[in-house]
Amino acid sequence: MLISLAMLAFSVVTLIDIITREEGQVKHLPKFGWVLIAILIPLLGGILWWAIGREYPERAPRAAATGYPAAPFVPKPVDTRTTEQQLADLDREIEAERLRAEIARRKRERGEA
């Protein structure tokens, strides 16, 4: 008896959740398809709905075990340069480093450093 009531409550909660979801929050099938599955196969349909059928909201990152609040999400900057631009910048950096090393070598030879 208790198992039957639990299954009925699970099926009712599942149907309410399916019906009240926005269409954009439903995955893999239209809402009508999920309602049919939840009615025709109550237990399996409900499990499938909660496992793969609904879109869950984004969760904030959890706080660490230290008890301090989690750091806010900071997106990584996107490099919009082309590959050719990146290679040219890298070549300039390499040449600048080579010139710095050459200047340091010449200073050592003259005894300035």
TrEMBL record:
Keyword terms of this UniProt record: Cell membrane, Coiled coil, Membrane, Transmembrane, Transmembrane helix
Subcellular locations according to the entry: Cell membrane
InterPro entries assigned to the protein according to its UniProt record, in alphabetical order: CLS_N
Chief location of this protein within or outside the cell: membrane
Membrane topology: Multi-pass membrane protein
Transmembrane segments: 31-52
Segments forming domain Cardiolipin synthase N-terminal: 10-54
Coiled coil start-end: 80-107
Protein name: Cardiolipin synthase N-terminal domain-containing protein
